[in-house]
Amino acid sequence: MPLQNRVTPFGELVRTPARGTMMGNRGGRIHDNQSRTLLRRRWASRRWIVCVTEFRGRKRTLMQPNSYTELFFLDEATALAAGHRPCFECRHRDAKAFAAAFFGGSQFDKSGADAMDAILHKERCLSGAGAVVLTREEALSLPRGAIFAAGDDCIAVGEDTLLLWDLVGYRRLGSSRLDTGNALRLLTPPSTVAALRAGYRAQLHPSADA
């Protein structure tokens, strides 16, 4: 049975045999050492990061005892929607670019991580932020890489198109999909949306270009 370690844009952790393109963690261990099942808590600290799946040849056994819980994402846009941000170790260049965009162009480095984590933790849907309700026009004006919910569906903003999110990839949608009467809610934290508007380029799954 697959481990419960795949993250949706809502921040939920689900089981699926589908593989993601990026990994990350939520600041420590959130699994039981013996059974490799999740504990009730869904994060260990405010440091939620998104990483590459290969780095300097390192190999890991998933959900090791007394080690952080490895999580996996369809892509970076999914991770950002769930409230994660780039890792300063394995994605140093991306992390610096994200921090600069996050702080309005200031040249922050790893020292700015704590400030970002504090802000994001207040804005993450899973850690208690209230839903940001969007109008149709606001949803259509979101930057590339942002994700919002339309009812139970997750919709990402691609290059001049909307993309219906799924565990295995995306498929293109027309804007008429927003006219169904479902409430539209922003999933990507507002500060991350601002960073996307400021020019940070989130990595999208290859299916976004199909």
Structure description:
This protein is α+β, with helices and mostly antiparallel strands. The chain folds into two domains: 4-123, no CATH class; 132-209, no CATH class. The protein is built from five helices and twelve strands. It has helices spanning 76-82, 92-102, 113-123, 136-140, 190-197, and strands at 4-7, 13-15, 22-25, 49-51, 71-73, 85-86, 132-134, 147-150, 153-157, 162-166, 169-173, 184-186. The strands form three sheets. It has a six-stranded antiparallel beta sheet with strand order 7-12-8-9-10-11. The protein has a four-stranded mixed beta sheet with strand order 5-3-4-6. The longest helix has 11 residues, at 92-102. The protein is globular. It comes from Hoeflea poritis. This is Hedgehog/Intein (Hint) domain-containing protein.
> Total number of β-strand segments?
12
Question: How many independent structural domains?
Answer: 2
Assembly type: single chain
Strand order in the largest sheet: 7-12-8-9-10-11
| Helix and strand composition category | alpha+beta
Organism: Hoeflea poritis
Protein name: Hedgehog/Intein (Hint) domain-containing protein
Please describe the topology of this protein.
Elements: E1 4-7, E2 13-15, E3 22-25, E4 49-51, E5 71-73, H1 76-82, E6 85-86, H2 92-102, H3 113-123, E7 132-134, H4 136-140, E8 147-150, E9 153-157, E10 162-166, E11 169-173, E12 184-186, H5 190-197
Short description:
With 210 residues, the protein is an alpha+beta fold. The chain has a 6-stranded antiparallel beta sheet.
